[in-house]
Amino acid sequence: MLGPRVAKIGGNELDRPGWLEECARALKVVDPLVVVHGGGQAITAWSRRLDLPVEKRDGKRVTTPQVAEIVEMVLAGPVNRQVVAALRAAGLDAVGLSGVDGGLLAARRAPGNLGAVGEITAVRAALLQSLLLAGLTPVLAPVAPDSDAPGVPLNINADDAASAVAAALGASELLFVSDVAGVQVGGVAQPEIAATEIEGLIAAGVARDGMAAKLRAAVAALRGGARAVRIGDLDLFRNPAAGTRIVAAVTQPA
Q1: CA end-to-end distance (rounded Å), the chain
Q2: Catalytic (active-site) positions
């Protein structure tokens, strides 16, 4: 029996009028489903409002202790509630969670001098599965307790969180959803990219920042046990051929 789908919905698009409602309507046909959301725009806005630094490296936010407090407040608070409310309005029985709730995620500090940024070491998949069996749609804010230092949770890149969840659940498909139709190479959206090509695309500057993070997370999900990964826009939910499929190896034509 195939596992559920996992959908990561972009943080930038959540601020676009009508996008979240349209996304929620599209998600209604995807069941069972776990949703992981970002919230980068809201975190940046609050950081600037409080005169805190805004810095990213390779698509990941440098997170000082003060920024970590903003991340927890924004992602596990208003952004999570916004996504849950939209999904419930569309007819999904959504329930909001953070990676701290129920020990859902375990993490340690990531290398690279990013501050309070974590990499996931474990996912409590049984908890998610029990919620799915109850007919609920978990909506996950990507923060997780620091296994080495209790206190303010670690900031987890939402793409990495979705990847870890998809791998732990053996997801039938992981969908990275934003307002981009797919991964573009030379201005052309690619129907398929092999995992072995990804580091070359990043090194050549073809995939940068957030897209580089998505591609690396896609490879990690496939290696961890997810069955399939696609990157694209809302058409991913309506068309099984939409977006860019990330595959372990290039499919040879018949």
Answers
A1: 28
A2: 8, 11, 40, 159, 214
